[in-house]
Amino acid sequence: MPVSKDAEILRHIAREEPLSSTQAAFGVTREQLTRILEKAARQLEKDAPRRAASQSEVPAVPEMPRLRVYSDGAARGNPGPAGAGAVLVEPNGQVVDRIGKYLGKQTNNFAEYMGLILGLERAQALGVKEIEVYADSELMIRQLGGRYQVKSPSLRPLYDRAVTLLNHFDRVKLVHVPREMNLAADEMSNRAIDEHL
Predict the structure, then answer these.
(1) How confident is the model over 107-133, as a mean pLDDT?
(2) Is 49 helix (H, G, I), strand (E, B) or coil?
(3) What end-to-end distance do the CA atoms of the chain give, in Å?
(4) Same domain, 7 and 37
(5) Count of CB atoms situated within 10 Å of the CB of 50
(6) Using an 8 Å Cβ cutoff, are 184 and 98 in contact?
(7) I need a labelling partner for 171 at 20 to 30 A (CA). Which of 80, 144, 163, 178 fits?
(8) Is 123 part of a structural domain of the chain?
(9) Does the pLDDT of residue 100 top 60, yes or no?
């Protein structure tokens, strides 16, 4: 609320409100209360330029220009208890975030897409502009790259969601990696199942 409006409210209270309960509680007269409210209104107006300057000096949260998203999904039984995982990493190798989500009874491919979606949503929230996706699901990477069609009705909404998220970024790189290069995301997807994250 603007400071000028705050000051107007205080002055309105001083003019219009009975203030009898305040008078009784503090043992003051109506005139004394009016002076207190007027003094507070003037102080608000006096402090307004300083307050506005300090608010404009608050540093903005820096955006991360580029991140790697390692994503994975696991289903024990396929379908069976499933979990999705993602690990966000800066280009220098610094881990930014680890995410896991328990999915209930689902297929492995469903879990793979959910792992990617979790990672992409987090990257978008961080203001990332360029994204590199690393996943050990050849099916998912090839579907997203346009080399395979999405035939499964249960995967179609997840594919559409992933494409929408990918289109948010200025630059996207999709990389299929062997499982041993995706261990951190694999760990998060399995933790999600074990701990019901």
Answers:
(1) 95
(2) helix
(3) 39
(4) yes
(5) 9
(6) yes
(7) 178
(8) yes
(9) yes
Looking at the fold, whether 73 and 7 belong to one and the same domain comes out as no
Q: What residue type is assigned to position 38 of the chain?
A: E
Same domain, residue pair 76 and 103 = yes
Q: Which residues, in sequence order, are CB contacts of 27 under 8 Å at separation 6+?
A: none
Residues 122 and 26 in one domain: no
Q: Which residue has the higher pLDDT, 16 or 80?
A: 80
Strand partners, 171: 130
CA distance 142 to 80: 24
Range of the domain at 118: 66-195
108 and 46 assigned to the same domain: no
Amino acid at position 148, single letter = Y
Averaged pLDDT score across all residues of the chain: 87
Whether the model pTM is above 0.70: no
Residue 128 CB-half CA count within 13 A: 27
The C-alpha atoms of residue 166 and residue 173 are separated, in whole angstroms, by: 10
**Residues 71 and 166 reside in one and the same domain:** yes
Domains in the chain, number: 2
Q: Parallel, antiparallel, or unpaired for β 80-89 and 171-176?
A: unpaired
Count of beta carbons in the 10 Å neighbourhood of residue 145: 12
Residues near 105 by Cβ (< 8 Å), separated by ≥ 6?
Answer: 77, 79, 80, 81, 82
For the stretch 77-89, pLDDT in tens is: 989 999 999 999 9
Contact 110, 82 (CB under 8 A): yes
